[in-house]
């Protein structure tokens, strides 16, 4: 039995609109490509816009490769006001005068660079006993949460007008920008909440290479296919290994190859035609073992017939 839709292989860098869930954006893009299989590399909050990397076909095998990548955001922060959720979605709690100088702000920002601890927000998708914290919070239930260690690689003030701050933040996986905004406001003594968030970078992928859903809607099928990046776009930080056709065939049959390779750990593997074969691991003896391999179209068509 054939799957509905076409086999489309590749990576799409989507500029997700504000107010759209990641899954809704994924399904719209999937329908535009008429793709049989699609996924994403980690969700982006509905109240945030920006870079969302989508995977199609065989690229979905490598979706997890970006989950642990650093991410960069442009955050709009309002000083002097706090809300129940730390962003515009919640109800206002406090409103106090702001007497913060640019020097005050820079001094506080310096304390948040590097390794820091964050307490996850109750209004989040984290789960406790099978229920999301967001659902528990809406029921009026509050749970004491343990702080988590995260890394703020970059924290730079792009603009400051006395009450509103625009920050550029590069951070590790699991960092909550609205919690960062709240903590900065608390350190300044006036409170704060997040009023806008845009993701501009995930790993080595940048927003400059992205397209919007409106862009895709205006294109024909061939033009849409031209927006896709190759399967290895998510794995450019891995060392590359090139194999002969014979070694490719052996690897794809699940064999380990004693090639005395000098690199170690995960690698991306290519055949003699420079087409990606998949990912593999090199052990301490230089032996290459298959990890995630790309199925060729002939194999998939045979399986689906």
Structural class, from helix and strand content? alpha+beta
What is Rg? 23 Å
The SSE order reads: EHEEEEEHEEEHEEHEEHHEHEEEEH
Q: Tell me about the largest β-sheet.
A: 9 strands, mixed
Rounded mean pLDDT score: 88
Counting DSSP E segments of at least 2 residues, the number of strands comes to: 18
Quick description:
The chain is α+β, with helices and mostly antiparallel strands and 305 residues long. It has helices spanning 22-33, 102-111, 133-138, 177-188, 213-217, 221-226, 245-252, 297-304, and strands at residues 10-16, 38-40, 49-56, 71-79, 81-83, 92-95, 114-118, 127-128, 131-132, 148-160, 164-171, 192-202, 205-206, 240-242, 257-258, 265-270, 276-282, 287-293.
Please describe what this structure looks like.
- The chain has 305 residues and is of the alpha+beta class.
- It has eight helices and 18 strands.
- Strands 1, 2, 3, 4, 7, 10, 11, 12 and 13 form a nine-stranded mixed beta sheet that branches. Strands 14-16-17-18-15 form a five-stranded mixed beta sheet. Strands 5-6 form a two-stranded antiparallel ribbon.
Task: List the SSEs and their pairings.
Elements: E1 10-16, H1 22-33, E2 38-40, E3 49-56, E4 71-79, E5 81-83, E6 92-95, H2 102-111, E7 114-118, E8 127-128, E9 131-132, H3 133-138, E10 148-160, E11 164-171, H4 177-188, E12 192-202, E13 205-206, H5 213-217, H6 221-226, E14 240-242, H7 245-252, E15 257-258, E16 265-270, E17 276-282, E18 287-293, H8 297-304
Parallel strand pairs: 3-12, 14-16
Antiparallel strand pairs: 1-3, 2-3, 4-11, 4-12, 5-6, 7-10, 8-9, 10-11, 12-13, 15-18, 16-17, 17-18
């Amino acid at each position: 039995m054939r799957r509905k839709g076409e086999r489309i292989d590749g990576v799409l860098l989507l500029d997700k609109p504000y107010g759209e869930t990641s899954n809704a954006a994924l399904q719209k893009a999937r329908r535009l490509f008429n793709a049989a299989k699609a996924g994403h590399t980690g969700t982006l909050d509905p109240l945030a816009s920006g870079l969302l990397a989508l995977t199609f076909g065989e690229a979905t095998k490598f979706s997890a490769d970006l989950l642990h990548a650093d991410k960069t955001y442009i955050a709009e922060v309002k000083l002097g006001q706090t809300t129940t959720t730390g962003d515009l979605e919640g109800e206002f709690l406090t409103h106090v005068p702001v007497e913060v100088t640019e020097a005050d702000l820079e001094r506080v920002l310096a304390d948040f660079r590097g390794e820091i601890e964050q307490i996850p927000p109750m209004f989040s998708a984290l789960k406790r006993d099978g229920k999301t914290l967001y659902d528990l919070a809406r029921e009026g239930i509050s749970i004491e949460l343990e702080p988590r260690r995260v890394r703020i690689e970059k924290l730079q003030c792009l603009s400051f007008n006395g009450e509103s701050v625009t920050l550029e933040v590069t951070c590790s996986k699991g960092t909550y920008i609205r919690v960062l905004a709240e903590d900065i406001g608390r350190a300044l003594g006036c409170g704060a909440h997040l009023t806008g968030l845009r993701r501009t970078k995930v790993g080595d992928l940048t927003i400059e290479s992205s397209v919007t859903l409106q862009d895709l809607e205006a294109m024909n099928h061939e033009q849409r296919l031209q927006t896709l990046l190759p399967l290895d776009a998510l794995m450019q930080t891995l060392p590359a290994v090139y194999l002969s056709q014979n070694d490719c065939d052996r690897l794809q049959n699940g064999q380990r190859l004693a090639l005395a390779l000098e690199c170690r750990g995960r690698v991306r593997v290519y055949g003699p035609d420079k087409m990606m074969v998949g990912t593999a691991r090199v052990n301490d003896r230089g032996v290459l073992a298959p990890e995630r391999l790309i199925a060729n179209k002939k194999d998939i068509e045979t399986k689906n017939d």
